[in-house]
Design brief:
This protein is of the alpha+beta class and 611 residues long. Helices cover 31% and strands 25% of the residues.
């Protein structure tokens, strides 16, 4: 269905065609490190394309002149710089409607290089030609069967008892059994222990999943037993009195790919023998239920994984062996309230931990002629270490009339907590003082915006909100600040968010309370100073167009690493819904090179007033 399932080959020296085909076929099937090995169950549904590559030439031109040396539809590209290499076939540019410069940028990204690395004189860029021979796979039915880890029911129960006994021994502080003599051995792709009380539904899972490399069976089960014992220790406060603990085992092997949650391809998925998994970034859920149709299993797995961007959520299946059916395991975090006071997470790194030093730095950043503060509906400020970006943030915020209610929306940089999280705390602690939050406003946001949750874990070490607080506290001591951290999302989800946010702001204003939106975002990351400034200008111009979709597409289409693009799109779309997006005014711009002097790898910062 047009999705890449594997692509490996041989290139660099002459080789017999039959040998090249055999080597390329094996590598593509089992050695493409980007993807799971191809499962036999997938074979009838694959399309195969063989490319014969020839006429390799080193592009002698340098810098921007390399663009003219690439002919779309004729040439493929290979780049080598340092220990990084990347190759794209001639068909890639045609299929993705790339021009020559876009093709050069994409081959850099394929190699794990910055997008403009093709202009580096030290980069070796090679073009080549090729002929494509496409067609569907044709396989006999017997070839679709997998012989991985065939376990009898008795062997599966032996392994489950091994886990149960070790969990009990670890809970008592006794010595566990590290190895099950005479028990099955081998490698697996995943395993889970599901814990329940008195025969009820599972209350906790400990699991491990690995597409590649495979993981050893018995040692993995021992580590899961350790996790189960810890989970039971943590659950004793909520376990029923005289509870009987039940532990069930699920084993997964032979992974297969089935597209995305938005566009799934469930051919070859048999609910009788396979579990279905949905994985989006660090969230996942897998379901084994022979009584349900594949589409119903997919919906359950996607719901349990709390999918935010269906086009980016991968769908996979595994051969399953389970002691109990149905079985469901999720690693998706759930929101949690936490303490009333959120302690500083990045004091001593992003800004001084000493109260006097922090106050002196804030005063220094706010120095300069004070123009009259103006009424703004939103502002954008950077969130790097205050030494690098604090002056721009300070100068932007001091130009703004800050009301009593402030919502700071920033990107989520840490792996902890839920993807879209509102800080549930009543106060933010800083060195030398606190900043009040507004739990009522936080709850209003959760009630109005699909997918948004109250969660302390997501904000525990997150800096995007925290680094703005010292300036807000100094300029508007009575302001109450609600912090929002956003992980993955797409344009449709941004629009859902902004619709709910606009409704919350309208309701607040009907009660006579103004709300300021603060977009916490740095601009492009880690290009040269010259390239960074070029890309950042694209971002700022897109914001000045007053069209949030233009901003979103600009960042996506040019691979600009603006970490707060979703907060910016949401704020702009919210103001547009409220009829208040009339002007976007620049206050200042800089890169980290202005402080460090290092122009080889910089980050961009800008302050903007949205009026």
């Amino acid at each position: 269905q047009g999705r890449l399932r594997g692509c490996c080959g041989v290139m660099g020296s002459p080789i017999r065609l039959d040998e090249a085909l055999a080597r390329s076929a094996r590598r593509t099937a089992v050695e493409d490190h980007r993807l799971p090995p191809i499962s036999p169950s997938e074979l009838p549904f694959l399309d195969l394309e063989v490319w014969l590559l020839y006429h390799p030439q080193l592009i002698e031109e340098q810098g921007e002149d390399r663009v003219q040396a690439v002919e779309i539809g004729k040439h493929g590209l290979q780049i080598a710089l340092g220990d990084r290499r990347g190759l794209l076939l001639p068909g890639v540019a045609v299929e993705n409607k790339l021009d020559a410069e876009g093709f050069l940028r994409q081959v850099c990204l394929k190699a794990g290089l910055r997008p403009d690395a093709w202009m580096d004189d030290a980069a070796q860029v090679q073009r080549f030609e090729g002929v494509s021979i496409p067609g569907p796979m044709e396989v006999e039915k017997e070839a679709t069967k997998s012989d991985r880890l065939e376990l009898t029911h008795h062997e599966l129960e032996m392994l489950a008892d091994f886990c149960r006994q070790n969990t009990a021994l670890l809970l008592r502080g006794a010595s566990p059994t590290y190895y099950l003599p005479g028990g099955p051995e081998g490698s697996i792709n995943g395993a889970a222990l599901s814990i329940s009380f008195n025969g009820g539904p599972a209350v906790s899972h400990v699991s491990r999943l690995s597409f590649r490399p495979e993981i050893p069976l018995q040692s993995t089960l021992f580590s899961l037993a350790e996790g189960a014992a810890q989970a039971l220790r943590n659950s004793r406060a909520v376990a029923p009195q005289k509870a009987t603990v039940d532990i069930e085992l699920t084993l997964l092997t032979d992974p297969a790919m089935h597209g995305t949650a938005e566009s799934p391809d469930l051919r070859g998925f048999d609910p009788e023998t396979r579990a279905l998994a949905v994985i989006e970034r660090r969230k996942s859920a897998w379901v084994f239920d022979p009584s349900k149709a594949p589409e119903a299993i997919l919906k359950q797995a996607a719901d349990e994984a709390q999918v935010l961007t269906p086009q980016d959520a991968g769908v996979y299946s595994f051969r399953v062996k389970a002691t109990k059916s149905p079985a469901m395991v999720t690693t998706t975090p759930r929101g949690g309230a936490g303490a009333d006071v959120r302690p500083p997470g990045v004091a001593g790194t992003f800004y001084p931990a000493d109260a006097d030093e922090l106050n002196a730095l804030v005063e220094e950043m706010l120095e300069g002629e004070r123009e009259p503060a103006v009424t703004c509906h939103a502002v954008m400020v950077p969130h790097a270490g205050l030494r690098y970006s604090g002056r721009i943030a300070a100068q932007t915020l001091k130009r703004t009339e800050i009301p009593d209610a402030v919502i700071v929306i920033g990107p989520k940089h840490t792996p902890w907590g839920v993807e879209w999280a509102v800080a549930p705390h009543r106060r933010w602690q800083l060195p030398g003082g606190t900043v009040e939050s507004d739990p009522e406003l936080a709850q209003e946001l959760v009630d109005a915006i699909p997918g948004l949750q109250l969660d302390s874990a997501a904000h525990q070490r997150e800096h995007a909100v925290e680094v703005e607080l010292p300036f807000i506290a100094k300029l508007a001591p009575s302001a109450r600040v609600v912090g929002v951290a956003l992980g993955a999302g797409d344009l449709a989800r941004c629009r859902q968010f902004s619709e709910g946010l606009a409704n919350v702001i309208r309701a607040r204003e009907e009660r006579g309370e103004k709300v300021l939106l603060v977009i916490s975002s740095d601009l492009n990351h880690f290009a040269t100073d010259e390239e960074n400034r070029r890309l950042d200008e694209m971002v700022l111009s897109a914001m000045e167009s007053l069209d949030p979709e233009t901003l979103y597409n600009t960042v996506r289409d040019h691979q600009i690493s603006m970490c707060g693009v979703l907060p910016a799109v949401i704020a702009m779309d919210t103001l547009r819904r409220l009829g208040r997006l009339e002007r976007c005014q620049r206050v200042g711009y800089a890169t980290s090179a202005d402080v460090s002097g290092d122009k080889s790898r910089v980050v961009g910062y800008a302050g903007m007033l949205l009026r």
